[in-house]
């Protein structure tokens, strides 16, 4: 991992937005909630012991703006000390900007890409069969699949057509049916941030990054901001059985969020988040380059609908949650041999970026090679109590 700079981190408008991060402070052997501002990085942990607590404010951006905090250093130096290679353990470094929130993820949220993948899969390489299915889909809903609303009468008609064409699957059920797929991505506090190694199961031979928007949601169900995320996915494990989803998704360092949380304010709103274009770049030591993107504007379920299906009378999250919104990106570029598709190799550098949210950069390693996760909820509570912050 090369040394990161501020240019590898900040949004296109710099520090004009309300930016929140977490920084490891060696002098207290624990994390600090920080505000990233034009004149430095400020520790606000005495006012907000956790990012979760900040997100519980009626107006988190306003509350953070009214908190001066203690300056702990320049962003440049903290960012440069974040990558595990060459890190000085006696100086601060960045962490993922999430702590007590539950880590949730939504899947199969882009019908525009999902339907085409399933059509091709069910057609089994027969172009004529695939074209017949496409024509029937077009007759029912037109040629803009992004307008298809899951659970609608139109979607249910499409479901029956696909069943008749022997093209139905469990993925389509959650993609265009009334119920969204929402699952727990990883344990609370297990996320890695930008500049850190992201993990792959050592037995996986077919895997890929998933560039996504991550919403931060309070315990009341209010969406307060967003960050970038990599919902690292093992295609071979999940492909063998949907019941292996947890093993495909939850491994050490397999959940990456960052670089910072951008709270909603006058410079960045939920409507802005709905229009995000997220880019992906994978660069390997073998010279391989893969580029992709995901446009939130083409999502099939509105972010508010996905949040509403996650929290409510049926399920509560007292410390709030973050929600990966899914991706329209599906890697098809061959890496080694024709027809073999894409899979990660050791030391791939993955960059997920959006002008409004900055860049999330990770190096890919097996989960056992990544830094072990040792600082959990109990350690955080003990550390904050020792510092007299709770």
From TrEMBL:
Gene3D superfamilies: Fumarylacetoacetase-like, C-terminal domain. Keywords: Hydrolase, Metal-binding. One of its GO terms (molecular function) is metal ion binding. The keyword Transit peptide does not apply. Belongs to the FAH family. This is Fumarylacetoacetate hydrolase. It comes from Bradyrhizobium nanningense.
């Amino acid at each position: 991992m090369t040394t990161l700079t501020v240019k590898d981190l900040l949004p296109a408008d710099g520090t004009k937005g309300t930016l929140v991060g977490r920084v490891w402070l060696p002098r207290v052997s624990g994390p600090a909630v920080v505000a990233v501002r034009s004149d430095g990085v400020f520790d606000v942990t005495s006012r907000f012991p956790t990012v979760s607590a900040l997100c519980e404010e009626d107006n988190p951006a306003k509350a953070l703006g009214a908190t001066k905090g203690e300056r702990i250093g320049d962003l440049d130096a903290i960012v440069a000390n974040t990558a595990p290679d060459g890190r000085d353990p006696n100086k601060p470094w960045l962490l993922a900007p999430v702590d007590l929130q539950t880590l949730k993820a939504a899947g199969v949220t882009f019908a525009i890409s999902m339907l085409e993948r399933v059509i091709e899969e069910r057609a089994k390489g027969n172009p004529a069969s695939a074209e017949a299915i496409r024509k029937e889909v077009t007759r029912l809903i037109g040629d803009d699949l992004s307008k298809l609303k899951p659970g609608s009468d139109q979607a249910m008609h499409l479901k029956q057509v696909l069943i008749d064409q022997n093209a139905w699957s469990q993925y389509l059920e959650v993609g265009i049916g009334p119920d969204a797929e929402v699952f727990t991505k990883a344990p609370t506090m297990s996320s890695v941030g930008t500049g850190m190694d992201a993990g792959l199961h050592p037995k996986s031979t077919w895997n890929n990054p998933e560039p996504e928007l991550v919403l931060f949601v309070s315990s009341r169900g209010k969406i307060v901001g967003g960050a970038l995320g990599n919902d690292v996915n093992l295609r071979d494990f999940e492909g063998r059985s949907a019941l292996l989803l947890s093993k495909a998704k939850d491994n050490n360092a397999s959940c990456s969020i960052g670089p910072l949380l951008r709270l909603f304010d006058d410079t960045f709103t939920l409507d802005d988040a709905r229009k995000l274009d997220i880019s992906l770049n994978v660069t390997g030591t073998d010279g391989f380059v893969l580029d992709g993107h995901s446009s939130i504007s083409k999502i099939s379920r509105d972010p508010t609908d996905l949040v509403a299906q996650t929290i409510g009378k049926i399920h509560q999250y007292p410390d709030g949650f973050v929600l990966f919104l899914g991706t329209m990106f599906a890697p098809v570029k061959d890496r080694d041999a024709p027809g073999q598709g894409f899979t990660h190799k050791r030391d791939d550098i993955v960059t997920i970026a959006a002008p409004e949210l900055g860049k999330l950069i990770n190096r890919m390693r097996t989960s056992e090679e990544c830094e072990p996760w040792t600082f959990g909820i109990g350690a955080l509570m003990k550390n904050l109590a020792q510092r007299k912050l709770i």
